[in-house]
Amino acid sequence: MAEQMSIDSAPPAGGGPSPGSRYDFEDAQSGDLGALAAIADAMKSDNLTDRLESLKRLSVLALAMGEERTREELIPFLDESIDDEDELLLALAELLGDFVQYVGGPKYAYVLLRPLENLAAAEETVVREKAVESINKLVSGMDQLHVEEYLIPCIARLSSGEWFTSRSSAAGLYASAYGKVTDAIQSKLRAGYEALCKDDMPMIRRAAASNFKDVVEKISDDHVVSFAIPNFRQLAEDDQDSVRLLTVEPLVAITKRLTTEECKQHLGAIVQSLCVDKSWRVRYMVADHFVSLATNIKDADLQEELLNVAISLMHDSEAEVRGAVCTQLDGLAGLGNSEAIVGRLQAPLQELVDDPSQHVRATLAKHIGSLCRVFGKEGTIEHLLPLLLRLLKDSFPDVRLNIISKLDAVDSVVGIDSLSQSLLPAIVELAEDKQWRVRLAIIEYVPLIASQLGVQFFDEQLSSLCMSWLGDPVYSIREAATVNLKKLTEVFGVDWARATIIPKILIMATHPNYLYRMTTIFAITMIAPSVTPDIVRDMILPSLEGLVNDPIPNIRFNVAKSLEPLTEVLRKSADTAQLEESIIRPTLARLEEDPDPDVRFFAHRSVTAIGAMSA
Asked: pTM score, two decimals?
Protein backbone atom coordinates (compact mmCIF):
# COMPACT_ATOMS: atom_id res chain seq x y z
CA MET A 1 0.00 0.00 0.00
CA ALA A 2 2.78 2.39 0.91
CA GLU A 3 4.13 2.13 -2.61
CA GLN A 4 0.97 3.72 -4.01
CA MET A 5 1.24 6.82 -1.82
CA SER A 6 1.91 10.08 -3.64
CA ILE A 7 3.88 12.91 -2.06
CA ASP A 8 1.60 15.58 -3.43
CA SER A 9 -1.60 13.85 -2.41
CA ALA A 10 -0.68 12.12 0.81
CA PRO A 11 -3.79 11.09 2.73
CA PRO A 12 -3.90 12.64 6.17
CA ALA A 13 -3.26 10.25 9.03
CA GLY A 14 -6.44 9.78 11.05
CA GLY A 15 -8.21 12.59 9.25
CA GLY A 16 -5.18 14.88 9.47
CA PRO A 17 -3.98 17.03 12.32
CA SER A 18 -5.45 20.35 13.09
CA PRO A 19 -3.36 23.41 12.23
CA GLY A 20 -0.45 23.86 14.59
CA SER A 21 -0.86 20.41 16.18
CA ARG A 22 1.90 17.83 16.46
CA TYR A 23 2.23 14.93 14.04
CA ASP A 24 2.64 11.39 15.28
CA PHE A 25 5.63 9.75 13.60
CA GLU A 26 6.03 6.84 16.01
CA ASP A 27 4.89 4.13 13.56
CA ALA A 28 6.90 5.41 10.60
CA GLN A 29 9.68 2.85 11.00
CA SER A 30 7.20 0.03 10.45
CA GLY A 31 6.11 1.48 7.09
CA ASP A 32 2.59 2.14 8.37
CA LEU A 33 0.75 4.07 5.64
CA GLY A 34 -0.82 6.51 8.07
CA ALA A 35 2.54 7.37 9.63
CA LEU A 36 4.17 7.74 6.23
CA ALA A 37 1.33 9.98 5.17
CA ALA A 38 1.89 12.00 8.34
CA ILE A 39 5.51 12.59 7.28
CA ALA A 40 4.49 13.73 3.82
CA ASP A 41 1.70 15.89 5.23
CA ALA A 42 3.97 17.45 7.85
CA MET A 43 6.40 18.51 5.12
CA LYS A 44 3.71 20.91 3.90
CA SER A 45 2.70 22.08 7.37
CA ASP A 46 2.74 25.73 8.40
CA ASN A 47 4.47 24.72 11.60
CA LEU A 48 8.31 24.91 11.32
CA THR A 49 8.81 22.32 14.06
CA ASP A 50 6.67 19.82 12.16
CA ARG A 51 8.55 20.44 8.93
CA LEU A 52 11.89 19.94 10.70
CA GLU A 53 10.63 16.74 12.28
CA SER A 54 9.45 15.47 8.90
CA LEU A 55 12.93 16.05 7.45
CA LYS A 56 14.44 13.87 10.17
CA ARG A 57 12.06 11.07 9.08
CA LEU A 58 12.60 11.62 5.35
CA SER A 59 14.81 8.54 5.02
CA VAL A 60 11.91 6.40 6.27
CA LEU A 61 9.64 7.85 3.61
CA ALA A 62 12.30 7.29 0.95
CA LEU A 63 12.68 3.65 1.95
CA ALA A 64 8.93 3.16 1.74
CA MET A 65 8.71 4.78 -1.67
CA GLY A 66 11.67 2.91 -3.13
CA GLU A 67 14.71 4.24 -4.96
CA GLU A 68 13.05 4.95 -8.30
CA ARG A 69 10.09 6.88 -6.89
CA THR A 70 12.38 8.72 -4.51
CA ARG A 71 14.37 9.94 -7.52
CA GLU A 72 11.32 10.76 -9.62
CA GLU A 73 8.93 12.15 -7.00
CA LEU A 74 10.49 12.88 -3.61
CA ILE A 75 13.61 14.74 -4.79
CA PRO A 76 11.69 16.95 -7.27
CA PHE A 77 9.15 17.64 -4.53
CA LEU A 78 11.92 18.76 -2.18
CA ASP A 79 13.41 20.92 -4.93
CA GLU A 80 10.11 22.61 -5.72
CA SER A 81 9.10 23.17 -2.12
CA ILE A 82 12.35 24.66 -0.88
CA ASP A 83 11.44 26.61 2.23
CA ASP A 84 12.44 30.11 3.17
CA GLU A 85 13.23 29.19 6.77
CA ASP A 86 17.00 29.09 7.23
CA GLU A 87 16.85 26.42 9.89
CA LEU A 88 14.96 24.10 7.58
CA LEU A 89 17.21 24.86 4.61
CA LEU A 90 20.28 24.04 6.66
CA ALA A 91 18.81 20.72 7.78
CA LEU A 92 17.87 19.86 4.18
CA ALA A 93 21.32 20.75 2.84
CA GLU A 94 22.92 18.43 5.38
CA LEU A 95 20.38 15.65 4.77
CA LEU A 96 20.83 15.58 0.99
CA GLY A 97 24.57 15.04 1.34
CA ASP A 98 23.85 11.69 3.01
CA PHE A 99 20.89 10.72 0.83
CA VAL A 100 22.76 8.83 -1.91
CA GLN A 101 21.80 5.39 -0.59
CA TYR A 102 18.09 6.24 -0.89
CA VAL A 103 18.22 7.26 -4.55
CA GLY A 104 20.04 4.15 -5.78
CA GLY A 105 23.68 4.69 -4.85
CA PRO A 106 26.54 6.79 -6.35
CA LYS A 107 25.42 6.19 -9.96
CA TYR A 108 22.29 8.24 -9.22
CA ALA A 109 23.94 10.84 -6.98
CA TYR A 110 23.49 13.44 -9.72
CA VAL A 111 19.75 13.67 -9.02
CA LEU A 112 20.56 15.34 -5.71
CA LEU A 113 22.57 18.11 -7.36
CA ARG A 114 19.59 20.20 -8.44
CA PRO A 115 18.09 20.86 -4.97
CA LEU A 116 21.58 21.34 -3.57
CA GLU A 117 22.37 23.83 -6.35
CA ASN A 118 19.35 25.87 -5.29
CA LEU A 119 20.45 25.69 -1.68
CA ALA A 120 23.96 26.77 -2.68
CA ALA A 121 22.41 30.02 -3.90
CA ALA A 122 20.53 30.66 -0.64
CA GLU A 123 20.93 33.95 1.13
CA GLU A 124 22.09 32.53 4.49
CA THR A 125 25.85 31.79 4.56
CA VAL A 126 25.67 28.64 6.69
CA VAL A 127 23.08 27.13 4.33
CA ARG A 128 25.31 27.79 1.30
CA GLU A 129 28.36 26.36 3.04
CA LYS A 130 26.50 23.18 4.04
CA ALA A 131 25.12 22.79 0.49
CA VAL A 132 28.63 23.10 -0.97
CA GLU A 133 29.92 20.59 1.55
CA SER A 134 27.16 18.15 0.59
CA ILE A 135 27.81 18.56 -3.15
CA ASN A 136 31.51 17.87 -2.61
CA LYS A 137 30.56 14.79 -0.64
CA LEU A 138 28.45 13.56 -3.57
CA VAL A 139 31.21 14.27 -6.09
CA SER A 140 33.61 11.95 -4.28
CA GLY A 141 31.44 9.00 -5.36
CA MET A 142 30.51 10.19 -8.86
CA ASP A 143 32.25 8.94 -12.01
CA GLN A 144 33.80 11.15 -14.68
CA LEU A 145 30.84 10.92 -17.05
CA HIS A 146 28.34 12.17 -14.46
CA VAL A 147 30.69 14.87 -13.18
CA GLU A 148 31.09 16.24 -16.71
CA GLU A 149 27.40 15.86 -17.58
CA TYR A 150 25.82 17.19 -14.38
CA LEU A 151 28.33 18.86 -12.03
CA ILE A 152 30.19 21.01 -14.58
CA PRO A 153 26.96 22.65 -15.84
CA CYS A 154 25.97 23.17 -12.19
CA ILE A 155 29.28 24.95 -11.52
CA ALA A 156 28.85 27.01 -14.69
CA ARG A 157 25.36 28.13 -13.67
CA LEU A 158 26.47 29.05 -10.18
CA SER A 159 29.57 30.86 -11.49
CA SER A 160 27.50 33.01 -13.81
CA GLY A 161 24.68 33.64 -11.35
CA GLU A 162 23.38 37.17 -11.07
CA TRP A 163 23.53 37.20 -7.26
CA PHE A 164 26.81 37.00 -5.36
CA THR A 165 25.47 34.08 -3.30
CA SER A 166 25.67 31.58 -6.16
CA ARG A 167 29.10 32.76 -7.38
CA SER A 168 30.58 32.55 -3.88
CA SER A 169 29.31 28.97 -3.55
CA ALA A 170 30.71 28.05 -6.97
CA ALA A 171 34.24 28.77 -5.72
CA GLY A 172 33.97 25.86 -3.29
CA LEU A 173 33.15 23.31 -6.03
CA TYR A 174 36.01 23.72 -8.50
CA ALA A 175 38.58 21.70 -6.57
CA SER A 176 36.42 18.60 -6.16
CA ALA A 177 35.47 18.62 -9.86
CA TYR A 178 38.95 19.37 -11.22
CA GLY A 179 40.51 15.95 -10.76
CA LYS A 180 37.56 14.11 -12.34
CA VAL A 181 37.34 15.74 -15.77
CA THR A 182 39.29 15.85 -19.04
CA ASP A 183 42.11 18.32 -19.77
CA ALA A 184 39.82 20.41 -21.96
CA ILE A 185 37.28 20.84 -19.17
CA GLN A 186 40.06 21.48 -16.66
CA SER A 187 41.12 24.39 -18.85
CA LYS A 188 37.59 25.79 -18.72
CA LEU A 189 37.52 25.34 -14.94
CA ARG A 190 40.76 27.29 -14.57
CA ALA A 191 39.29 30.08 -16.70
CA GLY A 192 36.13 30.07 -14.62
CA TYR A 193 38.06 30.26 -11.36
CA GLU A 194 40.21 33.06 -12.71
CA ALA A 195 37.03 35.00 -13.45
CA LEU A 196 35.97 34.57 -9.81
CA CYS A 197 39.38 35.85 -8.64
CA LYS A 198 38.79 39.00 -10.70
CA ASP A 199 35.10 39.44 -9.81
CA ASP A 200 33.94 42.97 -9.07
CA MET A 201 32.42 41.98 -5.74
CA PRO A 202 34.81 41.60 -2.76
CA MET A 203 32.80 38.71 -1.28
CA ILE A 204 33.32 36.68 -4.47
CA ARG A 205 37.06 37.37 -4.46
CA ARG A 206 37.07 36.44 -0.77
CA ALA A 207 35.40 33.10 -1.56
CA ALA A 208 37.90 32.51 -4.37
CA ALA A 209 40.82 33.21 -2.03
CA SER A 210 39.35 31.01 0.69
CA ASN A 211 39.09 27.99 -1.64
CA PHE A 212 42.23 28.68 -3.68
CA LYS A 213 44.40 26.39 -1.55
CA ASP A 214 42.28 23.35 -2.50
CA VAL A 215 42.48 24.27 -6.19
CA VAL A 216 46.27 24.71 -6.03
CA GLU A 217 46.63 21.24 -4.57
CA LYS A 218 44.67 19.71 -7.50
CA ILE A 219 46.31 21.41 -10.50
CA SER A 220 49.41 20.05 -12.26
CA ASP A 221 52.91 21.44 -11.67
CA ASP A 222 52.88 23.21 -15.04
CA HIS A 223 49.80 25.19 -14.10
CA VAL A 224 51.16 26.27 -10.70
CA VAL A 225 53.32 28.86 -12.44
CA SER A 226 50.99 29.69 -15.33
CA PHE A 227 47.70 29.74 -13.39
CA ALA A 228 48.17 29.72 -9.63
CA ILE A 229 50.83 32.40 -9.26
CA PRO A 230 49.13 35.06 -11.45
CA ASN A 231 45.83 34.59 -9.64
CA PHE A 232 47.56 34.55 -6.29
CA ARG A 233 49.17 37.90 -7.18
CA GLN A 234 45.77 39.23 -8.19
CA LEU A 235 44.30 38.31 -4.82
CA ALA A 236 47.37 39.26 -2.74
CA GLU A 237 47.29 42.78 -4.21
CA ASP A 238 43.56 43.20 -3.64
CA ASP A 239 42.48 46.48 -2.09
CA GLN A 240 40.41 44.58 0.51
CA ASP A 241 42.37 43.24 3.48
CA SER A 242 39.66 40.60 4.01
CA VAL A 243 40.77 39.13 0.66
CA ARG A 244 44.52 39.54 1.17
CA LEU A 245 44.53 37.76 4.54
CA LEU A 246 43.02 34.66 2.90
CA THR A 247 45.91 34.39 0.43
CA VAL A 248 48.43 33.21 3.00
CA GLU A 249 47.25 29.59 3.08
CA PRO A 250 47.21 29.34 -0.76
CA LEU A 251 50.71 30.84 -0.72
CA VAL A 252 51.92 28.04 1.56
CA ALA A 253 50.37 25.50 -0.83
CA ILE A 254 52.03 27.19 -3.83
CA THR A 255 55.49 27.32 -2.24
CA LYS A 256 55.21 23.61 -1.50
CA ARG A 257 54.84 22.92 -5.24
CA LEU A 258 57.66 25.19 -6.48
CA THR A 259 61.40 24.64 -6.77
CA THR A 260 63.89 26.86 -4.96
CA GLU A 261 64.58 28.88 -8.10
CA GLU A 262 60.88 29.30 -8.88
CA CYS A 263 60.19 30.55 -5.35
CA LYS A 264 62.96 33.10 -5.67
CA GLN A 265 61.87 34.19 -9.15
CA HIS A 266 58.12 34.47 -8.67
CA LEU A 267 57.36 35.01 -4.98
CA GLY A 268 60.10 37.03 -3.29
CA ALA A 269 58.58 40.48 -3.65
CA ILE A 270 54.97 39.50 -3.03
CA VAL A 271 55.85 37.54 0.12
CA GLN A 272 57.72 40.54 1.46
CA SER A 273 54.76 42.81 0.77
CA LEU A 274 52.40 40.49 2.69
CA CYS A 275 54.78 40.41 5.65
CA VAL A 276 54.68 44.20 5.96
CA ASP A 277 51.06 44.64 4.88
CA LYS A 278 49.35 47.73 6.25
CA SER A 279 46.56 45.56 7.71
CA TRP A 280 47.43 43.85 10.99
CA ARG A 281 45.07 40.98 10.12
CA VAL A 282 47.18 40.14 7.08
CA ARG A 283 50.37 40.35 9.12
CA TYR A 284 48.74 38.11 11.72
CA MET A 285 48.03 35.42 9.10
CA VAL A 286 51.63 35.63 7.88
CA ALA A 287 52.92 35.32 11.44
CA ASP A 288 50.59 32.40 12.17
CA HIS A 289 51.83 30.45 9.11
CA PHE A 290 55.37 31.78 9.15
CA VAL A 291 57.31 28.56 9.67
CA SER A 292 55.33 26.61 7.04
CA LEU A 293 55.94 29.41 4.57
CA ALA A 294 59.64 29.84 5.37
CA THR A 295 60.30 26.09 5.34
CA ASN A 296 58.72 25.66 1.90
CA ILE A 297 60.77 28.55 0.48
CA LYS A 298 64.02 26.70 0.20
CA ASP A 299 66.21 29.62 -0.91
CA ALA A 300 68.69 30.59 1.82
CA ASP A 301 68.64 34.28 0.92
CA LEU A 302 64.85 34.41 1.02
CA GLN A 303 64.82 32.55 4.35
CA GLU A 304 67.30 35.09 5.72
CA GLU A 305 65.01 37.90 4.64
CA LEU A 306 62.06 36.11 6.20
CA LEU A 307 63.96 35.75 9.47
CA ASN A 308 64.40 39.52 9.48
CA VAL A 309 60.67 39.85 8.88
CA ALA A 310 59.91 37.50 11.77
CA ILE A 311 62.00 39.59 14.12
CA SER A 312 60.22 42.72 12.92
CA LEU A 313 56.88 40.99 13.60
CA MET A 314 58.02 40.47 17.20
CA HIS A 315 58.07 44.27 17.43
CA ASP A 316 54.72 44.68 15.66
CA SER A 317 52.34 47.32 16.97
CA GLU A 318 49.50 44.78 17.29
CA ALA A 319 49.56 42.30 20.19
CA GLU A 320 47.79 39.63 18.11
CA VAL A 321 50.65 39.65 15.60
CA ARG A 322 53.32 39.45 18.30
CA GLY A 323 51.44 36.57 19.92
CA ALA A 324 51.11 34.71 16.61
CA VAL A 325 54.83 34.91 15.86
CA CYS A 326 55.57 33.58 19.36
CA THR A 327 53.75 30.36 18.40
CA GLN A 328 56.33 29.91 15.62
CA LEU A 329 59.45 30.06 17.82
CA ASP A 330 60.18 26.34 17.59
CA GLY A 331 60.26 26.26 13.79
CA LEU A 332 61.79 29.71 13.57
CA ALA A 333 64.86 28.49 15.38
CA GLY A 334 65.55 25.94 12.65
CA LEU A 335 65.64 28.36 9.73
CA GLY A 336 69.31 29.29 9.80
CA ASN A 337 72.62 29.15 11.61
CA SER A 338 72.04 28.47 15.32
CA GLU A 339 74.61 30.94 16.59
CA ALA A 340 73.29 33.74 14.40
CA ILE A 341 69.70 33.03 15.41
CA VAL A 342 70.60 32.99 19.11
CA GLY A 343 72.24 36.38 18.80
CA ARG A 344 69.37 37.91 16.89
CA LEU A 345 66.60 36.56 19.10
CA GLN A 346 67.94 37.74 22.44
CA ALA A 347 66.82 41.38 22.17
CA PRO A 348 63.27 40.63 20.88
CA LEU A 349 62.79 37.98 23.56
CA GLN A 350 63.80 40.48 26.25
CA GLU A 351 61.10 42.83 24.99
CA LEU A 352 58.45 40.12 24.70
CA VAL A 353 59.01 39.02 28.31
CA ASP A 354 57.95 42.54 29.35
CA ASP A 355 55.25 42.88 26.69
CA PRO A 356 52.29 44.99 27.86
CA SER A 357 49.87 42.32 26.59
CA GLN A 358 49.36 39.41 28.98
CA HIS A 359 48.18 37.30 26.03
CA VAL A 360 51.56 37.78 24.31
CA ARG A 361 53.47 36.92 27.47
CA ALA A 362 51.35 33.80 28.02
CA THR A 363 51.95 32.65 24.43
CA LEU A 364 55.68 33.32 24.79
CA ALA A 365 55.77 31.33 28.03
CA LYS A 366 54.13 28.38 26.28
CA HIS A 367 56.65 28.27 23.41
CA ILE A 368 59.93 29.74 24.69
CA GLY A 369 61.05 26.37 26.04
CA SER A 370 61.37 25.07 22.47
CA LEU A 371 64.31 27.43 21.94
CA CYS A 372 66.45 25.60 24.51
CA ARG A 373 67.68 23.00 22.02
CA VAL A 374 68.88 25.81 19.71
CA PHE A 375 70.47 27.87 22.47
CA GLY A 376 72.18 24.78 23.90
CA LYS A 377 72.98 24.18 27.56
CA GLU A 378 75.30 27.14 28.07
CA GLY A 379 73.17 29.53 26.04
CA THR A 380 70.00 28.45 27.86
CA ILE A 381 71.59 28.92 31.27
CA GLU A 382 73.04 32.30 30.29
CA HIS A 383 70.20 33.77 28.24
CA LEU A 384 66.94 31.84 28.63
CA LEU A 385 66.85 30.89 32.33
CA PRO A 386 66.79 34.55 33.43
CA LEU A 387 63.83 35.10 31.08
CA LEU A 388 62.07 32.00 32.41
CA LEU A 389 62.55 33.25 35.96
CA ARG A 390 60.96 36.58 35.07
CA LEU A 391 58.04 34.79 33.43
CA LEU A 392 57.62 32.57 36.51
CA LYS A 393 57.12 35.74 38.54
CA ASP A 394 54.68 37.29 36.05
CA SER A 395 51.55 38.85 37.50
CA PHE A 396 49.28 36.98 35.05
CA PRO A 397 48.60 33.40 36.22
CA ASP A 398 48.44 31.90 32.70
CA VAL A 399 52.02 33.02 32.09
CA ARG A 400 53.22 31.25 35.23
CA LEU A 401 51.15 28.18 34.40
CA ASN A 402 52.50 27.91 30.84
CA ILE A 403 56.11 28.13 32.02
CA ILE A 404 55.60 25.39 34.60
CA SER A 405 53.89 23.10 32.11
CA LYS A 406 56.86 23.34 29.72
CA LEU A 407 59.73 23.00 32.20
CA ASP A 408 60.47 19.47 30.99
CA ALA A 409 61.73 20.94 27.69
CA VAL A 410 64.18 23.09 29.65
CA ASP A 411 65.16 20.20 31.92
CA SER A 412 66.02 17.98 28.93
CA VAL A 413 68.64 20.52 27.80
CA VAL A 414 70.18 21.99 30.95
CA GLY A 415 69.57 19.16 33.44
CA ILE A 416 67.59 19.24 36.64
CA ASP A 417 70.55 20.43 38.76
CA SER A 418 70.95 23.69 36.83
CA LEU A 419 67.22 24.09 36.64
CA SER A 420 66.69 23.62 40.37
CA GLN A 421 69.46 26.02 41.31
CA SER A 422 68.06 28.73 39.08
CA LEU A 423 64.32 28.24 39.31
CA LEU A 424 63.56 26.17 42.42
CA PRO A 425 63.11 29.16 44.75
CA ALA A 426 60.56 30.59 42.32
CA ILE A 427 58.88 27.18 41.97
CA VAL A 428 58.60 26.84 45.75
CA GLU A 429 57.09 30.32 45.89
CA LEU A 430 54.56 29.34 43.22
CA ALA A 431 53.56 26.33 45.30
CA GLU A 432 51.58 28.79 47.40
CA ASP A 433 50.28 30.78 44.42
CA LYS A 434 46.81 32.24 44.88
CA GLN A 435 45.71 30.69 41.57
CA TRP A 436 44.94 27.03 42.27
CA ARG A 437 45.73 25.95 38.67
CA VAL A 438 49.28 27.21 39.14
CA ARG A 439 49.59 25.23 42.39
CA LEU A 440 48.22 22.18 40.57
CA ALA A 441 50.85 22.47 37.82
CA ILE A 442 53.60 22.69 40.45
CA ILE A 443 52.31 19.55 42.17
CA GLU A 444 52.41 17.60 38.92
CA TYR A 445 56.01 18.71 38.34
CA VAL A 446 57.29 17.72 41.81
CA PRO A 447 57.83 13.97 41.16
CA LEU A 448 60.17 14.82 38.26
CA ILE A 449 62.20 17.17 40.45
CA ALA A 450 62.24 14.65 43.27
CA SER A 451 63.41 11.76 41.07
CA GLN A 452 66.27 13.84 39.72
CA LEU A 453 67.45 15.47 42.95
CA GLY A 454 67.15 12.52 45.32
CA VAL A 455 65.73 11.80 48.76
CA GLN A 456 67.89 14.12 50.84
CA PHE A 457 67.16 17.18 48.72
CA PHE A 458 63.45 16.38 48.70
CA ASP A 459 63.25 15.92 52.47
CA GLU A 460 65.06 19.20 53.04
CA GLN A 461 63.38 21.37 50.42
CA LEU A 462 60.05 19.91 49.32
CA SER A 463 58.69 17.47 51.90
CA SER A 464 56.85 20.01 54.05
CA LEU A 465 55.52 21.64 50.89
CA CYS A 466 53.97 18.38 49.66
CA MET A 467 52.30 17.81 53.02
CA SER A 468 50.90 21.34 53.10
CA TRP A 469 49.01 20.67 49.85
CA LEU A 470 46.97 18.00 51.64
CA GLY A 471 45.30 20.79 53.58
CA ASP A 472 44.67 23.05 50.57
CA PRO A 473 41.19 24.62 50.49
CA VAL A 474 40.71 23.50 46.85
CA TYR A 475 39.65 19.86 46.46
CA SER A 476 41.51 19.40 43.15
CA ILE A 477 44.74 20.36 44.88
CA ARG A 478 44.16 17.93 47.75
CA GLU A 479 43.35 15.18 45.28
CA ALA A 480 46.47 15.90 43.21
CA ALA A 481 48.53 15.98 46.40
CA THR A 482 47.47 12.42 47.27
CA VAL A 483 48.39 11.23 43.76
CA ASN A 484 51.69 13.06 44.17
CA LEU A 485 52.47 11.14 47.38
CA LYS A 486 51.78 7.85 45.61
CA LYS A 487 54.24 8.78 42.84
CA LEU A 488 56.84 9.83 45.41
CA THR A 489 56.41 6.49 47.18
CA GLU A 490 57.12 4.74 43.90
CA VAL A 491 60.18 6.94 43.34
CA PHE A 492 61.79 6.73 46.80
CA GLY A 493 60.52 3.36 47.97
CA VAL A 494 58.34 1.89 50.70
CA ASP A 495 60.86 2.35 53.53
CA TRP A 496 61.04 6.07 52.83
CA ALA A 497 57.24 6.30 52.83
CA ARG A 498 57.04 4.39 56.15
CA ALA A 499 59.52 6.71 57.83
CA THR A 500 58.68 10.06 56.26
CA ILE A 501 55.28 10.40 54.62
CA ILE A 502 52.84 7.97 56.22
CA PRO A 503 53.36 9.19 59.83
CA LYS A 504 52.66 12.76 58.71
CA ILE A 505 49.51 11.64 56.89
CA LEU A 506 48.22 9.70 59.87
CA ILE A 507 48.70 12.63 62.23
CA MET A 508 45.95 14.42 60.29
CA ALA A 509 43.51 11.63 61.24
CA THR A 510 42.97 13.38 64.56
CA HIS A 511 42.77 16.92 63.16
CA PRO A 512 39.71 18.86 64.39
CA ASN A 513 38.86 19.94 60.80
CA TYR A 514 36.98 17.10 59.09
CA LEU A 515 38.52 17.97 55.69
CA TYR A 516 41.95 17.00 57.00
CA ARG A 517 40.55 13.73 58.33
CA MET A 518 38.89 13.12 54.95
CA THR A 519 42.17 13.81 53.14
CA THR A 520 43.88 11.27 55.40
CA ILE A 521 41.52 8.57 54.12
CA PHE A 522 42.01 9.64 50.49
CA ALA A 523 45.80 9.68 50.87
CA ILE A 524 46.17 6.27 52.51
CA THR A 525 43.72 4.76 50.01
CA MET A 526 45.77 6.18 47.16
CA ILE A 527 49.19 5.04 48.37
CA ALA A 528 48.03 1.66 49.77
CA PRO A 529 48.70 -0.29 46.51
CA SER A 530 52.29 1.01 46.58
CA VAL A 531 53.10 -0.09 50.16
CA THR A 532 53.54 -3.47 51.82
CA PRO A 533 50.84 -5.41 53.74
CA ASP A 534 52.69 -4.99 57.06
CA ILE A 535 52.51 -1.17 56.71
CA VAL A 536 48.76 -1.45 56.19
CA ARG A 537 48.51 -3.73 59.25
CA ASP A 538 50.81 -1.78 61.60
CA MET A 539 50.13 1.84 60.62
CA ILE A 540 47.08 2.35 58.43
CA LEU A 541 44.43 0.05 59.92
CA PRO A 542 44.80 1.37 63.50
CA SER A 543 44.20 4.93 62.28
CA LEU A 544 41.17 3.90 60.24
CA GLU A 545 39.65 2.06 63.18
CA GLY A 546 39.67 5.37 65.05
CA LEU A 547 37.77 7.04 62.19
CA VAL A 548 35.03 4.40 62.11
CA ASN A 549 33.29 6.24 64.97
CA ASP A 550 33.85 9.72 63.51
CA PRO A 551 30.84 12.00 64.07
CA ILE A 552 30.83 13.06 60.38
CA PRO A 553 28.99 10.54 58.12
CA ASN A 554 31.17 11.47 55.11
CA ILE A 555 34.21 10.31 57.05
CA ARG A 556 32.58 7.01 57.99
CA PHE A 557 31.42 6.09 54.49
CA ASN A 558 34.84 6.94 53.07
CA VAL A 559 36.34 4.59 55.63
CA ALA A 560 33.99 1.93 54.29
CA LYS A 561 35.11 2.66 50.72
CA SER A 562 38.81 2.53 51.66
CA LEU A 563 38.59 -0.91 53.24
CA GLU A 564 38.11 -2.55 49.83
CA PRO A 565 41.52 -1.57 48.35
CA LEU A 566 43.19 -2.18 51.71
CA THR A 567 41.84 -5.73 51.69
CA GLU A 568 43.51 -6.36 48.33
CA VAL A 569 46.86 -5.33 49.82
CA LEU A 570 46.38 -7.46 52.97
CA ARG A 571 45.68 -10.55 50.85
CA LYS A 572 49.14 -10.31 49.28
CA SER A 573 50.71 -11.79 52.45
CA ALA A 574 49.72 -14.86 54.45
CA ASP A 575 50.65 -13.01 57.65
CA THR A 576 48.09 -10.28 57.05
CA ALA A 577 45.38 -12.11 55.09
CA GLN A 578 43.58 -13.20 58.29
CA LEU A 579 42.97 -9.53 59.15
CA GLU A 580 40.18 -9.59 56.59
CA GLU A 581 38.13 -11.79 58.91
CA SER A 582 39.32 -10.37 62.22
CA ILE A 583 39.19 -6.62 61.42
CA ILE A 584 37.89 -5.72 57.93
CA ARG A 585 34.62 -7.67 57.85
CA PRO A 586 33.64 -6.89 61.48
CA THR A 587 34.31 -3.20 60.83
CA LEU A 588 32.16 -3.23 57.70
CA ALA A 589 29.44 -5.13 59.58
CA ARG A 590 29.32 -2.33 62.15
CA LEU A 591 29.13 0.27 59.37
CA GLU A 592 26.29 -1.65 57.72
CA GLU A 593 24.29 -0.96 60.91
CA ASP A 594 25.17 2.77 60.85
CA PRO A 595 22.24 5.16 61.29
CA ASP A 596 23.28 7.09 58.15
CA PRO A 597 21.93 5.54 54.90
CA ASP A 598 24.97 6.58 52.83
CA VAL A 599 27.32 4.88 55.25
CA ARG A 600 25.23 1.70 55.13
CA PHE A 601 25.16 1.82 51.33
CA PHE A 602 28.95 2.11 50.88
CA ALA A 603 29.63 -0.43 53.62
CA HIS A 604 27.37 -2.94 51.88
CA ARG A 605 29.00 -2.17 48.53
CA SER A 606 32.47 -2.83 49.96
CA VAL A 607 31.28 -6.10 51.52
CA THR A 608 29.91 -7.17 48.14
CA ALA A 609 33.11 -6.17 46.31
CA ILE A 610 35.33 -8.00 48.82
CA GLY A 611 33.12 -11.05 48.50
CA ALA A 612 33.47 -10.90 44.71
CA MET A 613 37.26 -10.78 45.06
CA SER A 614 37.11 -14.02 47.05
CA ALA A 615 34.99 -15.80 44.44
From this structure: 0.69
